[in-house]
Amino acid sequence: MKRLVVLGAGESGVGTAILGKKKGFDVFVSDKGTITDYYKEVLRNFEIEWEEQQHTVSRIINADVVMKSPGIPDKVALVQQLLEKGIHVVSEIEFAFGFTAAQIVGITGSNGKTTTTMLTHYILQQGGLDVNMAGNIGDSFAKQVTEKDAPFYVLELSSFQLDGIKEFAPHIAILTNITPDHLDRYDYKFENYIASKFRIAMNQKEDDYFIYDADDKVIVEYLEKYPIRSKLLPFSLTKRVENGAYLEKNNITITIDNNKIIMPTENLALKGNHNVKNAMAAATVSQLLKIRKTTIRECLENFHGVEHRLENVLKINNVQYINDSKATNVNATFYALDAMKSATVWIVGGVDKGNDYTELFSLVNEKVKAIICLGVDNSKIINAFGNCVDDIVETQSMKEAVKMAYKIAERNENVLLSPACASFDLFKNYEERGRQFKEAVREL
């Protein structure tokens, strides 16, 4: 009997443990932190052995395969020890991939992955395909392969998940964009992070597809240097492309093998140029998978987006409060500020992942009237934007930040939570941060 050890008992870890158990592995789950009561109960029900608040090395290095959760860096001594012993260390995505025959749409990128994943899944589902959605969203891929495997999956994939693949190959891969993010995990080298994102295409073959942003210099230059095997389908807001998607006179045109679909951007439910790109990527997949054009058009007109991503919360005294808690990096915040049409009070801060704020200067000068810092250490934000705005205020809780914003914002202005940082200093995750923001706004 092969031994599977799972490091980390979150959604992906427990999903992998269940799949391993069902496939006849001897399974052991080890978590350095505490395991939630819910997951303990699940592990007990499946009679899977587990430990918490420690890693017992002797019970781990006798594994045939180790699945480590995306949150554990490769540099950790235990992982290094496993690799030195020649033990396969994989991500949940890689492990589950071995047990499904499904066609996979894999979506990665620094920003836009969640929206593109949800939109793609929505169109394929409305088009009548039996399709599951997993990865960074909802139930884990492994759990779905175990319980309700489907012929199609749309997977949102982070660079950490891609770092742990060996055989994984999506039939259709989407790379939305690449901007510096998570550099703390990549020795602060942007090129390491770029290579990590491109792992999504490393096992693709000639009859697979790679959909990418042709306006993204980083992607285009990498493709020139390191060509990939799959068929390229670019999308662009600035240039015409023969196969793929482009924007011309406010119309999106998508062409695949002389088969065209044209759609006016004013009909898109999601506003902003970044969402035009997300729509192009999702529609290109849908056309590849032979969804009817009318279905694609209707879905793009009806899909209203993702919680915590430029989500309008409430208007109070003619001030619009906007929750963009999902903006955990500078580029995501760039899109948010770019979408603001009037003066904005900007709530920013959290755990900095090696951010370079210079690309925000012109937008902040143009649109931001005051900055409210929400983090344990705000010095970098204060130093970066001290010359751009007159008002910079430090706060230590969401309630305090929202009350402060309420005092500063005037009629027809916006209050935007778009932190450009991870949330772990004051919140469990970006969802909790966003929910607290919405609660604080409703209590005003």
Automatic annotation (TrEMBL):
Residue ranges annotated as coiled coil are: none
Q: Which residues form the Mur ligase central domain?
A: 107-285
Q: What is its EC number?
A: 6.3.2.9
Transmembrane ranges, per UniProt, are none
Q: Which intervals hold domain Mur ligase C-terminal?
A: 308-421
The record's annotation in Pfam families points to:
Mur_ligase_C, Mur_ligase_M, MurD_N
Compartmental location: Cytoplasm
* Main localization, broad class: cytoplasm
What does the record list as GO biological process? cell division; cell wall organization; peptidoglycan biosynthetic process; regulation of cell shape
Gene Ontology MF terms in the entry: ATP binding; UDP-N-acetylmuramoylalanine-D-glutamate ligase activity
Q: Reaction(s) catalyzed by this protein?
A: UDP-N-acetyl-alpha-D-muramoyl-L-alanine + D-glutamate + ATP = UDP-N-acetyl-alpha-D-muramoyl-L-alanyl-D-glutamate + ADP + phosphate + H(+)
Recorded metabolic or biological pathway in which this protein acts: Cell wall biogenesis; peptidoglycan biosynthesis
Positions contributing to ATP binding: 109-115
> Keywords in UniProt for this one?
ATP-binding, Cell cycle, Cell division, Cell shape, Cell wall biogenesis/degradation, Cytoplasm, Ligase, Nucleotide-binding, Peptidoglycan synthesis
> Can you tell me which family this protein belongs to?
Belongs to the MurCDEF family.
> What is the name attached to this protein's record?
UDP-N-acetylmuramoylalanine--D-glutamate ligase
Source gene? murD
